[in-house]
User: What shape does this take?
Amino acid sequence: MSTPPLPPAALVGRHAIVCGGSISGLVTASVLSRHFERVTLVERDHSDDAPRPRKGVPQSTQLHGMHLRGMNILGNVIPGLQEELLAAGGRVLDMTESQAWCSAGAWYPRIRSGLGVSIQSRPLLEWVIRQRVQGLPNVRVLDGREVTGFQTSADRARVSGVHLRAPGGGQEETLEGELVVDASGRGSRTPQWLEALGYPRVEETRIHVDVRYATRLYQKPEGFEPGWESMALSPKLPEQRRLGVLQLIEGGRWLVTLAGWLGQGLATEDDAGFLEFARGLTQPHLHEAIKNAEPLGPIHHYRFSHNQRRHYERMPRFPEGLAVVGDASCSFNPIYGQGMTVGAMQAEALGECLRQGLGGVSQRYRQRVGKLLQVPWSMATSGDLRFPEVEGKRPPAFGLTNWYGDRLQRLTLHDEQARQTFFRVVHMLESPAVLFSPRMVFKVLTARLDTAPQHPAPEPLAARKPQSQVA
Assistant: This one.
């Protein structure tokens, strides 16, 4: 499922407004700049002159991943972005050659996959994208403003702008536009504002998972060369509920995230508790790597209570001139790393809908996104629904599908074709349907998985203590 370069676009309107300067909002603004004479991006936070976590993204200190489908879209919307990330200190790592990955107790082979994953901190990714978007001649970033509601036509059939003010109060102003895009995140107030205008309340699906994260930066110890640049220790669901990831990011730093489902995350703030949690993971390697490494700051906690999908495609009435993207539309358990990629896919879909003209774009877009979200929502929630305590409707043959998926994942440890296909599906480059092709089903059902050789684990090397810690 490749992403072709964006074709030249004809202008369809004079002014579009994007509410929210998240990555989804920034990418959407870039897409809209090809279709409107002017684009205004409204953001509550003030812009920074360097990559820093910001208040409006409380999870920005945590580990973030962008799937290959998402990076392909970003590269087409913002040409040269990958090169700029590399120049700013980001990295591209082969997802199996450069990463030591243990899944459900088995290690993946350390061989080249040909799938290069972009690695950097969330603040760096967002900052580089923002610099490019701010440099577009027809895009204005209006920061230090919060949107307080929609302006509409007299019959309320069309959103014609937004009302804004400075955070915390102040004089309200109105910004008019032919298209308003809500990219304000999972706390979006569009459902309430539409209801106040006489529209039905949007139907929501929630799947509660109570995922808890704890993340800390470490300095990579000098001379510590274990043969891998990142490490992931994934649990066997649903019996195990904790995971750990170590990622080498810009500045020669390690970003270490420890997480758990259903309240199993780290609850303490102290060094000993962080290390003890790491020690209790399925393998000792991550703990060994960080136990003598130098922390570069405090432990940052984040809690994600539930997957949330707003079904705008099901609303019997919906105003023209409005579109919803990113977490404001659908937010996923961040363990699966789909959020930024799906936001980019939605921005791309909005651009494709605008190529058919401004008239009817809101209706085309919401129906398109309703279909677009089916696969990533199913991929994310199917893992969470494996826990008996998680409430939610299981799809037909849920148990059989899980059994097949477990065998498929074990097959990927030994079968190169199955591994490549599986990773391409994970990165949304292929439809999950390819995992059920006749050839793949035959392999999964007939493989002698119990007698297959195990790939060796890397040595659980311990970094030397920094001189500052040596008595």
About this structure: The two ends are 56 Å apart (CA to CA). The first helix runs from residue 23 to 32. Confidence is low (pLDDT under 50) at residues 1-5. The first strand starts at residue 13 and ends at 19.
